[in-house]
Write a structure and sequence with these properties.
Number of strands: 2
Number of helices: 2
Order of helices and strands: HEEH
Helix content: 10-25%
Structural class: alpha+beta
Largest sheet: 2 strands, antiparallel
Shape: elongated
Strand order of the largest sheet: 1-2
Length: about 70
């Protein structure tokens, strides 16, 4: 989500990027990932953030009242 913001900010030079989902589960919640080539992130050329939330994944990882901290892997 921060990559388009960093790209649009003249004094921002770096964005933290994890190429897999081992650190951040956020990658599991979206339907499209950024491309990575020669140390550069390739931004989407579509308006907005360039992804949509995967509703099935969001539901899978959402908190529920019965087991609010149940980790699903």
């Amino acid at each position: 989500m921060h990559a388009p913001l960093v790209a649009a900010t003249p004094n921002a030079r770096y964005v933290e990027f994890f190429p897999d989902d081992q650190v951040l589960n956020f990658r599991r919640l979206i339907d499209r990932q950024l491309a990575f080539k020669n140390g550069d992130l390739i931004l989407h050329q579509t308006p907005g953030l360039g992804f949509r939330f995967d509703e099935k994944a969001v539901k899978k990882y959402a908190l529920n009242k019965a087991q609010p901290w149940n980790l699903i892997r």
